[in-house]
Design goal:
Layout: E1 4-12, E2 16-21, E3 24-29, E4 39-49, E5 52-58, H1 61-71, H2 78-87, H3 90-98, H4 102-106, H5 113-123, H6 134-137, H7 141-149, H8 154-161, H9 171-182
Helix pairs in contact: 1-2, 7-9
Keywords: Cytoplasm, DNA damage, DNA recombination, DNA repair, DNA-binding
Family: Belongs to the RuvA family.
Organism: Candidatus Berkelbacteria bacterium CG10_big_fil_rev_8_21_14_0_10_41_12
């Protein structure tokens, strides 16, 4: 079973990537807007059903965990779960479930009232903001710790972590990006 892939993107389409790992190309369905030639690491859900074998890739373990919890809801398959993850962050999904906000899910194409209700009911108590793994959301733990040392709270930083551009690889650049964006709300 494949759990993580690290390699170079050689092809990108609207809903999938081909990731080259050791001269082998893997087709990975994803919602993340990676660029060709990017070297990436993806947390993988290997979906196996009868005659279907698909890989779904996520930038963080938190996204993967949320995706897998969504798959446990009756009526939610991998395409619907990926659509939800593409529209709402793990934090927003947890908030919608905690607040019984079915409208957050109904606003997503392909998710009707019945499925939205099932998501809220079946995930109640199984997903919440306090369950999210903060460390795995962060692209750079040192940058987050630096902001916390400056007095920023975890809940202030969380919403900005998913938007860190993939071309920011150095800690100093990530800190600068977070200060510029999180600082707007301070």
């Amino acid at each position: 079973m494949i759990a993580y892939l690290k390699g170079k993107i050689i092809l990108r389409r609207a809903n999938f990537l081909i990731v080259e790992v050791g001269s082998v190309g893997y087709k990975v369905f994803t919602k993340n807007p990676f660029e060709i030639k990017d070297n990436i690491g993806l947390y993988i859900h290997h979906y196996l059903r009868e005659n279907i074998s698909s890989l779904y890739g996520f930038a963080s373990a938190t996204e993967l965990d949320t995706f897998e919890k969504l798959l446990c809801v009756s009526g939610v398959g991998p395409k619907a779960a990926l659509s939800i993850i593409a529209s709402l962050s793990p934090e927003e999904i947890a908030e919608a479930v905690d607040g019984s906000n079915m409208m957050a899910f109904k606003a997503i194409a392909g998710i009707g009232a019945k499925v939205a209700a099932k998501i809220v009911v079946e995930l109640k108590g199984k997903i919440s903001l306090s369950d999210l793994d903060f460390d795995s959301i962060s692209k750079d733990k040192e940058a987050v710790e630096a902001l916390q040392a400056l007095g920023y709270k975890q809940k202030e930083i969380l919403p900005y972590l998913k938007n860190i551009p993939s071309n920011l690889n150095e800690t100093k650049d990530i800190i600068r990006y977070l200060l510029k964006n999180v600082g707007k709300s301070k």
